[in-house]
Design a protein that fits this description.
Helices cover 42% and strands 19% of the residues. The protein has 17 helices and 15 strands. Helix 1 crosses helix 3 and helix 6 crosses helix 15. The protein starts with a helix and ends with a strand.
Length: 395
């Protein structure tokens, strides 16, 4: 209703009392008539010191003509009504809480792992406060079945963004739960383009974007580094599981061309029994251990580093976190930096960007990290060429 209609109501309403709500809402009446019947109108009463307003009583100010003072002037009423109309939406806005961004993931590693800590730290740097402006639904999983179940539940829980980190089973499970919810992937041990999850790295289709590691190519590079570091050792053992089968195949092919005899041991049921796995390898292959990457191997990085140290084995891992835990060598991208980058993907999507418009990124820098302290403790002397090539040497 505009101001002209309101003034008309006021003119018609002088001297009339408000009617009951059931009468005021009579559908046969016009809008102006209904509103007039609902507006509290001051009218004179038998008591010269009292005015009746709707169902309430207002004491009139004392003066030479209290009956006239009982009447509300039109300007005062318009001011009161207008002020109330403005106050209502302001109060409603003040009481409406800001929407919290909900992000969720299922992971085979703990939330306290350096990668997830880096993700949360970057979210904080971007201005998000957990519990106030965003929430992180983190579901731990010890098996593939738990990963699948976890993503189905998260997809149905009203999240805003899903993160599918690690092996192919993570992205596959996330997509089985939703084809519309934005998914930021961290494709560590598979090729999302070759497997058909996206149609292009530059312009991915559907609801998926994120980061893609070239682990197949890196698996071959690690075999080359092992051959350069230990040229006199004829054989090595590689631990792999179903989630890292592609890495095992790439490493096996490269080892054959370099003259390195590589014996693979598949680990099948978590928690993995590494003592039993090593005993399956030929004796002359037990001096070097190469560990593929999977959520379960990364979760066990401290166990594996300690295992290799106790057996005085030269070990090669994928990520520096394993070398920081006591492993000998690692070659791969900086995982903490890439998980920080994932937080930036989440931020852009939260601000309105569509996953299909965000190119999938690949790491461009790879680190060779050497733990010289471990080398000395197990009696291994590394070639100077390897030490010079290292991006970081832990002493």
């Amino acid at each position: 209703m505009n101001l002209r209609q309101l003034l008309e109501v006021l003119r018609e309403g002088q001297g009339e009392a408000a009617s009951a709500v059931s009468v005021a809402n009579d559908p046969k009446r016009s809008e102006a008539q209904n509103l007039r019947l609902q507006i509290p109108i001051l009218r004179p009463c038998s008591n010269p010191n009292t005015a009746v307003m709707g169902c309430g009583i207002v004491q009139a100010p004392k003066g030479p003509n209290p009956r006239l003072a009982c009447r509300m002037r039109r300007r005062e009423f318009v001011t009161l009504l207008g002020g109330t109309a403005v106050a209502w939406p302001l109060a409603a806005r003040a009481q409406t809480p800001a929407k919290i961004l909900r992000v969720g993931t299922v992971s085979g590693v703990q939330k306290s792992a350096p990668t997830w800590v880096a993700f949360e730290q970057r979210m904080a740097e971007l201005g998000y406060q957990e519990g106030k402006t965003w929430s992180f639904d983190f579901v731990p999983a010890a098996t593939e079945e738990q990963i699948e179940t976890g993503y189905r539940k998260l997809a149905a829980s009203g999240l805003d963004i899903l993160i599918a980190a690690g092996s192919e089973i993570a992205l596959k499970s996330a997509l089985s739960g939703t084809r519309t919810l934005p998914i930021v992937m961290i494709a560590i041990d598979y090729d999302p383009l070759a497997r058909g999850y996206v149609t292009s790295l530059a312009r991915p289709s559907g609801n998926v974007t994120g980061v893609f590691f070239q682990q197949i190519e890196l698996a071959a590079k690690r075999i080359q580094l092992i051959k350069d570091a230990f040229p006199d050792r004829p054989g090595a053992t590689m631990f792999w599981d179903r989630l890292s089968a592609d890495q095992w195949q790439a490493a096996q092919n490269t080892a054959a061309t370099l003259g390195l005899r590589l014996f693979g041991v598949e680990l099948r049921e978590p928690p993995y029994d590494y003592e039993r796995a090593l005993n399956q390898a030929p004796t002359d292959h037990r001096g070097i251990l190469i560990v593929a990457t999977s959520p379960f191997f990364f979760r066990d990085r401290s166990r594996l580093a300690d295992f290799a140290f106790r057996h005085r084995i030269a070990s090669m891992f994928v990520f520096r976190e394993s070398v920081e835990a006591g492993g000998l060598l690692s070659y791969g991208p900086n995982m903490k930096a890439l998980f920080g980058r994932v937080a930036e993907f989440v931020d852009r999507i939260a601000r309105g960007a569509k996953p299909a418009d965000l190119p999938i990124e690949q790491p461009t820098k790879f680190e060779l990290v050497v733990n010289l302290k471990t080398a000395k403790a197990i009696g291994i002397e590394l070639p100077t060429a390897i030490l010079l090539r290292a991006d970081e040497v832990i002493e």
